[in-house]
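Entry 14. Ran structure prediction on the chain below.
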Amino acid sequence: MAWIVLFLAGLFEIGWAVGIKYTEGFTKLWPSVWTLVSMAASVALLSLAMKTLPAGTSYAVWTGIGTAGTALLGVVLLRESMSVGQWLCIGLILCGVAGLKWLAPE
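Output, structure tokens:
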């Protein structure tokens, strides 16, 4: 269950990271509200996951999900470009996240 909570925390991290772009310096009300709610939810869920999972693993997985997801949405939603090398590096991050889950002690 802690891994599911951690995954949700990572999704909310993506939400606030992308949301910041839409706040335009926190001058837009609803994007700012979404971003702040996502920040709070992300940290709260990370905290819950850390009750069971090791702090280092939790934080690495949380930031990995956030990094990869934010990069992907940057390309899809914000029309940002990424080179093949950058895609490969994102793939390495995802491999690291999967490895941390796979190698985690039960």
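The radius of gyration is 15 Å. Will compare against last week's run tomorrow.
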